[in-house]
From TrEMBL:
The keyword rRNA-binding does not apply. This is Signal transduction histidine kinase internal region domain-containing protein. It comes from Mucilaginibacter xinganensis. InterPro entries: Bact_2-comp_sensor_kinase (IPR050640), HATPase_C_sf (IPR036890), Sig_transdc_His_kin_internal (IPR010559). The lineage of its organism: Bacteria, Pseudomonadati, Bacteroidota, Sphingobacteriia, Sphingobacteriales. GO terms for molecular function: phosphorelay sensor kinase activity. Keywords: Membrane, Transmembrane, Transmembrane helix.
């Protein structure tokens, strides 16, 4: 079974081809010349074929023709063919006269012309050989990419088994908790929705604004658990819910509010969020009160910087990102184009 699955590399395939050519030439000479003479002539001829083909595709063609030196290429090809043909003819005649022929045959100009013409035909085959090598290399590369893609898809399916098992478990806990503590059950449902967003939606290139807003609202609801007093939250949504935007694009601002702009012991926490569609752009703005315990309220991590880099990759320079303090409030502003 392993033998059936074995695939030859480009180098192994070439060795197989040249071995086959050697045997073909050998058995062509064998009926008239005998074993030793046929073997000698086969080795000389195949060596000549190898020299011409690889000399062209590995040296002359890339070194001169592909570099734009076409005249030099033609000159060297002529020298290569004439010199190679004469060398091949001389070796064959030398071996024949000194080792095999009972009556030596003198070398004639017709013989040299024959070897040169045969070399020219072999030289033309080098281009076919070069195309074949490129084809098999591309084919193997394509098969490797397909295999990697299939493995990646398999790994993705495997990775989704455990999260979906967890979703089902959370749903079971939700139904159990709903009878005793409806508020806790609602929070479990929001946590399940957030996890489902990370698994199913965040890998996508785009999600709907409605999906993104739902994710933000679930996140805010869970964050509010940690805060003793009620938060004054104002979330304005004035845009088409079916608009498509990159996932997690709005999360950084909201996350920073709860990291840097909330005093858990204060009853004066304010959060103002607006998401507005206007003139082909989406405007997202957050505003939160600054408390003494939270310092300036300005983010000091890498969230904003990472968001700026991501926006640059997505939109080039066609976006606006600004953060600033205005009195007792910290503001964050984002403007991105809509497709």
């Amino acid at each position: 079974m392993k033998f059936l699955k074995w695939q030859a590399s480009i180098e192994q395939l070439q060795w197989l081809i040249w071995t086959a050519v050697l045997f073909i030439v050998f058995f062509t000479y064998l009926p008239e010349d005998g074993f030793y003479q046929a073997g000698t002539f086969a080795i000389i001829n195949v060596a000549f074929y190898v020299l011409l083909i690889y000399g062209n595709i590995n040296f002359l063609f890339p070194r001169f023709y592909q570099e734009g030196k076409k005249v030099q290429y033609l000159i060297y090809v002529v020298i290569f063919l004439v010199g190679g043909g004469m060398l091949r003819g001389y070796l064959i005649m030398y071996m024949d006269i000194h080792f095999f022929a009972q009556k030596p045959t003198p070398m004639t100009i017709q013989m040299f012309i024959y070897f040169i013409v045969a070399g020219f035909l072999t030289f033309l085959l080098s281009f076919v050989f070069r195309i074949a090598i490129a084809y098999f290399a591309l084919k193997q590369q394509s098969e490797k990419i397909l295999a990697q893609k299939s493995q990646a898809e398999l790994n993705l399916l495997k990775s989704q088994v455990q999260p979906h098992f967890l979703f089902n478990t959370l749903n079971n806990i939700y139904y159990e908790a709903y009878r005793e503590a409806p508020r806790t059950a609602k929070l479990i449902e929001r946590l399940s929705d957030i996890m489902r967003y990370f698994v199913d939606e965040s890998p996508k290139e785009e999600v709907s604004v409605a999906t993104e807003v739902q994710f933000l609202e679930n996140y805010i609801a869970l964050e509010k658990i940690r805060i003793r007093h009620e938060i004054q939250l104002n979330f304005i949504k004035d845009c088409n819910a079916e608009l498509r935007i990159p996932p997690m694009l709005l999360m950084t601002f909201v996350e920073n509010i709860f990291k840097h702009g909330i005093d858990k012991s204060s009853s004066e926490n304010e959060i103002h969020i607006s998401l507005i569609q206007k003139d082909g752009y989406l405007f997202f703005e957050t505003r939160n009160r600054i408390h003494d315990k939270t310092g300036t309220g300005e983010p000091n991590g890498f969230g904003i910087e990472n968001l700026r880099k991501r926006l640059t990759l997505l939109y080039g320079s066609n976006f606006e990102l600004a953060i600033n303090n205005q009195g007792n409030y910290f503001n964050a502003f984002l403007k991105v184009p809509l497709a």
